[in-house]
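re the bet — no i am not wrong, look at it urself. input seq straight from the record:
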Amino acid sequence: SNIGGLFGTIVPTLLLVGNRNNSLTVIIFAVVLGLNALFYFVAMKPLNETKKMYKNEIDALDEREGIFKDIFENLKTALKSKAFLTYILFQVLALSPGIVYFTAFLFMADYVLVLDGLSATIADILPGVMLLVAAPFIGKFIVKKFGAKRASMIGIIPTALAYLSLFFVQNIVQLTIAYC
């Protein structure tokens, strides 16, 4: 999913930042779609579906008292779970700003720093590539030493500092460092 997300940011950045010919962007978009289709094909190829699988699912649905009763029972159980509520709050309060930030990044690159699409794309994907390469190694060390919960909480501190540093960005180098 990280690779798909990495490729998914290339096309909007190239399309929406700077005034330039978009023919290269259309080609890159086609390549991204092709890669995405290839990833799905490779992932789905070894999966085998049999009629028995569907028969078992239909029989299981017939034994239950309707799908909506299951949904409401599961929802009630989830809302009683402190771990689930903590996870949802963490998603909303800590991770949502990162998702919303991408739109602000496009605006900053185009109208504040007046970058072209290629420069903005490099500033956008470079941190993702660095994370893709370094995260497995750093993650093992940090999670092993501090635990997943504490590592997540500690990780919020540099993230917040990086978001605050965006107020002082004046050029593409500073933007890339803040985005890392």
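see?? The CA atoms of residues 60 and 105 lie 48 Å apart. told u. also The longest helix spans residues 82-112. so pay up
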